[in-house]
Amino acid sequence: MARKYIAETDITAWLKELSGDNLIIAPVVETGTVVYRPYTSGSEVELVNRPVSSPKEAVFPQTELLFTYKQDKTPEDPGRTKVDMKEATPDRATVFFGPRPCGTRGITMFDKVYNCGKQQDTYYVTRRENTAFVTIACTRPDATCFCHSVNSGPADPDGSDVLLVPVQGGYVAEAITDKGTELLAYDLFSDAGKREQEANAVIDKAREMLGDPHDFTDAESSLYKLFDDMEFWDEQAAKCINCGACTYLCPTCHCFNITDQTAGLSGRRIRTWDNCMSYEFTLEGSGHNPRPTKAHRLKNRLGHKFAYYPENNEGLVACCGCGRCIERCPSGVDIRAIVLAAKERSDVQE
Amino acid sequence: MSLDQLKRLIKAVLPDLDMVIGWKQGHDGLTATPLFIRSEDDVEKLQIGPLAVHNLATFLPGLKDKKVGVVVKGCDSRAAVQLLQEKLIDRANVTIFGFGCDGVVSHAKLRKQFDAMGRADSMVRDGDTVTIEHDDESTALPFNEICPDKCLTCEFPNAVVHDHFAGERIERTPVASENPALAEFEKLPISERLDFWQNQMGRCIRCHACRNACPMCVCRDHCLATSRDPNWIGQETSPRENLMFQMTHTMHLAGRCVECGECERACPMDIPVFLLRKKMADEVKELFDYNAGVNPDAKPPLMTFETDERNIKE
To answer: Which of residues A2 and A38 earns the better pLDDT score?
Structure first.
């Protein structure tokens, strides 16, 4: 379908139109840091600098209320407890505005876990179906960016409903899905015309800025070969401080925990993000922990992204190359360097 | 030059040690990363300077049974002292390499002043100015505006404890008499302070980088933040629960916090959590006239008591 154009000065008007029927979540600057927040008219959206947090919160919030419960006992029959449960349904129509293609593509990796043939996670699927992604193509990749090394790129439309490409004075807009076509059905848009070429040039330049991709071919088999090579993992994990910044900022990390937060006779069952870098993640009831050290846990994080998930999903690497884990790691752990080191080490062993 | 001397000192004792922890070039021109030196070749990668931000003493309790060398700035060395005082590390197993530190950068402050963070090739410090090469141009910034507040008030630029010292001792007087961010915070009326924290803690993602980067946070895998029994802190991500953890961490640092600022540096969401620890350290200083991690022979105030505390009027 033909691409359209919207002037930068009309973005606010567009958001106003969209907020009639939708909850809008958009990037804002909060005390100097870019994060996603519900958009209210008058707030200023930040569309140049990428948010630190990832867009996964659109479909996988850090705290998801599953249901509330209340226990009732009656004096007539004290042996019986009646439990009232009220399920939460996160069905608000939402437009998630302003992520980069890397983060949006991360969502598609959730689909294969929470919305596949065998298993459907109601909460995830409901949010996913009710959320549209308006993604902005990346124009200035950082040193930590490597989307092009994981079969993606600065204008990858995967997972997006609308893709915006920044051009002089505005954005060239392309509807990727039917949902996206509806989002562009406003008078604020005109035909992109010659701006299409400008948009293509912007994307080409961003691709060029990324430089040569890393060669992650055969990472899957290398990581399997090194599964028992704890000397390698101890060395790679030495500087890791075992916090969860990488997993919680990661657009593809999707593990969770479930907790009943009870107060008196009533409470809430919530689902919250969990992370494989924490000791408790695999701690068993017996006290045994199959991943007792940070080296075991870092091995799992790498293995999940570059070996186990690809094995189950036709080679798809569960890393979108956004580089948040590298950029914000307090110790400068670099996932790219570890994958490359694993390849080198397993080559030597052969 | 102190780096060359440092390399020589490390090479001389490396055969007797399992490893020496220092810094090396990170993934771009504005980052360094911890370096675990195990061979002479590794020594050549060593770097010190304004990008050596990490407090490497944080790794020591986890390597208690190994013979470990550690390179420390003044503030980092205070962590080593405190760990020794609390018998969390064994003096015989640790070899401390000190040098005079002239301040490090704050990436959080840098991000606010410099918008090409991810595209920097190199950074050079020359006196009061840092010059960053990026995108085929260079940007000069005043050092005092991009260093953490701890460097502005630093009284301990030289390692306070060391087995080896590289280069000349640095003589510098604090640029500021009080922590500027804390002074700014304390201008807020009491009624607005909770709002300040509610707002900041709304960004917290509970990754616990503040905890894990803290050299004094030694409960490690048995932390109340993640414990279900006892269940002190709820799993729900809310400003209230998030602040609860910060306050607990702060209370546990009374008389122990060496003001290295790692908690705030590590925070991926740029939350100024050091404010709370700094305030606690100031209170301890006022009540007990005590700086944590300065004198290995001193008794930390909360590890002892006096029947009549001088500054506590009951």
So the answer is: A38
pLDDT on residue A48:
93
Task: Give the integer Cα–Cα distance in Å for A192 and A200.
Answer: 12
Handedness of CA B231, B237, B240, B243 (dihedral sign): positive
- pLDDT beyond 80 at A159: yes
User: In this complex, do A272 and B203 lie within 8 Å of one another by their Cβ atoms?
Assistant: no
| Nearest CA among A273, A264, A257 for reference residue A68 | A264
Give residues with Cβ within 8 angstroms of A246, minimum separation 6: A253, A277, A301, A324, A325, A328, A329, A333, A335
Question: Is B212 in the A-facing interface, judged by CB distances under 8 Å?
Answer: yes
CB within 8 Å of chain A, chain B residues 57-76 = 58-59
- B57 near B81, Cβ under 8 Å? no
Instruction: Return phi, psi of residue A68, to 5°.
Output: -110, 155
Other Cβ atoms within 10 Å of A36 Cβ, number: 22
What's the complex ipTM?
0.95
Kindly report the number of other CB atoms within 10 A of residue B11's CB atom.
14
Q: How many helices (H) and strands (E) does chain B have?
A: 12, 8
How high is the pLDDT of residue A56? 97
Number of other CB atoms surrounding residue B51 within 10 Å:
20
C-beta atoms of B206 and A35 within 8 A: no
Give the Cα separation of B15 and B7 in Å (integer): 13
pLDDT tens track for A12-71: 999 999 999 999 999 999 988 999 999 998 889 999 999 999 999 999 999 999 999 999
Nearest neighbour of B226 by CB, restricted to A239, A241, A280: A280
pLDDT score of A338 more than 70: yes
* Shortest CA distance from B232: residue in chain A: A261
| Helix, strand, coil in percent for chain B, rounding step 5 | 40, 15, 45
Strand bridging mode B68-72 / B94-99: parallel
B 109-148 near A (Cβ less than 8 A): 111-112, 115, 117-120
Q: How confident is the model at residue A1 (pLDDT cuts 50, 70, 90)?
A: low
Touching check for A31 and chain B: CB below 8 Å?
Answer: yes
Alpha-carbon gap: A280 to the closest alpha carbon of chain B (Å): 7
Q: A350 pLDDT exceeds 70?
A: no
Tell me, yes or no, if A312 comes closer than 8 A to chain B by beta carbon: no
Q: Distance between CA atoms of B152 and B173, rounded to whole angstroms? A: 9
Q: What is the pLDDT of residue B311?
A: 86
Say which DSSP state B109 is in: H
Give the Cβ contact number of residue B12 at 10 Å. Answer: 10
Of B282, B198, B195, residue with least CA distance to B246: B198
Contacts of A287 in chain B (CB under 8 A): none
Locate the domains of chain B by residue range: 1-105+156-175, 178-314
- Contact state of A145 with B119 under an 8 Å Cβ cutoff: no
User: For residue B207, what is the nearest residue in chain A, using CA coordinates?
Assistant: A244
Q: How far apart are CA A63 and CA A142, in angstroms?
A: 30
Are B42 and B67 in contact, with CB atoms under 8 Å apart?
Answer: no
For residue B1, pLDDT beyond 80: no
